[in-house]
Design brief:
With 375 residues, this protein is α+β, with helices and mostly antiparallel strands. The protein is 22% helix and 27% strand. It folds into three domains: 6-140 and 186-214, DnaJ domain (Helix Hairpins, Orthogonal Bundle), CATH 1.10.287; 144-169 and 232-268, Sandwich (HSP40/DNAj peptide-binding domain), CATH 2.60.260.20; 275-366, HSP40/DNAj peptide-binding domain. The strands form seven sheets. It has a four-stranded mixed beta sheet. It has a three-stranded mixed beta sheet with strand order 3-11-10. Strands 1-2 form a two-stranded antiparallel sheet. The N and C termini lie far apart (102 Å).
Length: 375
């Protein structure tokens, strides 16, 4: 039998993880399923190849032997290995065992096919049909994540929000499987649910087209094969703690799919006055040039109200003043807060009276500053 590159068939690298292999198989199985590609022999052949590839690469032992022995990998499966005898080429007999995974050919591949085309809520096979000897699959939990935007002041004080989110839920027609039974007999296995192995090397194995049910299936038209449909869900009075930061997630236990968790990923709108760095806030505040020169007082706006600072004589533009404990609360340590760093911005008046202009001009002459005094 010609060697098949299973990694190439699934379109994954040899370093692919189990999760990547499973995802590749699910995608290709849906695209190439014969009931989705009626009369397309190429798609039917490809469907069988990707099923064979997944059966090997999803099994750690088979995959290891495939990687080690290449096109002779099957001789090392199921504990048979190579042994002397008249049955195979060159006096070697091949013992493959039951590659289907059991009496009905149902194994890990069967379960995955059922999850793609079968009844994911309670049925063991496609379209809700249960197979003898097959355990009823339980739907799997799934976490969800949604973005939520709040203001910086809401992050400072903490807030309570209500949201309406579009949450995917199992399709009511196919129960999350993505496919439904046509009520017709599967053409590939003639309704038996299993087929003989290639070239007589294998025992009976699960039918790759119907997943062992004997029933032909088709893509669910309500969810278009996705298995889920978005439905609005109202979340009321969700508490967002004080000090929450950009990109942090709030976990709502049990609010995901089938008991999974829902995570709200926080984004914080840019504030016109404050810049946040960790738990510290930064802001600019105006200092009259006379106060900057002679010393005095100037006000700084904070989330806790206006604070008056003592400004020393000779204060320069950009000079920083630290307001301890006026920054953001630390979300992990109760009672710990950051600082507010206020940067002086020297305010020069634009509407000078003639007397004020004369006084400043006199100061410039005393300091020998090179100024041009408007007439």
């Amino acid at each position: 039998m010609d060697y098949k590159d299973y990694y190439k068939i699934l379109g994954v690298p040899k370093t692919a993880t189990d999760k990547e292999i499973k995802a590749a198989y699910r995608k290709l199985a849906r695209e190439n399923h014969p009931d989705v590609n009626q009369g397309n022999k190429a798609a039917e052949d490809k469907f069988k190849d990707i099923g064979e590839a997944y059966d090997v690469l999803s099994d750690a032992d088979k995959r290891s032997k495939y990687d080690m022995y290449g096109d002779q990998w099957k001789a090392a499966t199921q504990g048979g290995g190579f042994r002397p005898g008249p049955g195979g080429p060159g006096g070697v007999e091949f013992d493959f065992g039951n590659m289907g995974g059991g009496a009905g050919g149902h194994g890990g591949l069967d379960d995955l096919l059922a999850s793609i085309f079968g009844n994911a809520v309670g049925g063991g096979g496609f379209g809700g049909f249960n197979r003898p000897g097959t355990s009823r699959r339980q739907p799997q939990q799934q976490d969800l994540e949604y973005a939520v935007e709040i203001s910086l002041e809401e992050a400072f004080r903490g807030t309570t929000k209500s949201f309406t989110l579009n949450v995917p839920e199992n399709c009511t027609r196919c129960n999350g499987s993505g496919a439904v039974s046509t009520g017709k007999k599967c053409k590939t296995c003639d309704g038996a649910g299993h087929v003989k192995g290639n070239r007589g090397f294998f025992g009976n194995s699960m039918c790759p087209d119907c997943g062992g049910t004997g029933q032909a299936v088709e893509v669910c038209q309500q969810c278009h094969g996705d298995g889920t449909m978005s439905k609005p869900r109202r979340l009321s009075d969700v508490k967002i703690p004080a000090g929450v930061g950009e990109g942090q997630r709030i976990r709502l236990a049990g609010q995901g799919i089938l008991g999974g968790d829902l995570f709200l990923k926080v984004s914080i709108r840019q504030h016109p006055r404050y810049e946040r760095k960790g738990d510290d806030l930064y802001t600019d505040f105006d200092v009259p040039f006379t106060v900057a020169a002679l010393g005095g007082e100037a006000g700084v706006e904070t989330f806790a109200g206006r604070k008056v600072l003592n400004i020393p004589a000779g204060t320069q533009g950009g000079q920083s003043f630290r307001l301890a404990g006026m920054g953001m609360p630390n979300i992990k340590q109760k009672g710990v807060t950051g600082n507010l760093i206020a940067r002086a911005k020297i305010a020069v008046p634009k509407d000078l009276t003639s007397k004020e202009r004369d006084l400043i001009a006199e100061l410039a002459r005393l300091r020998q500053d090179n100024v041009t005094v408007a007439a």
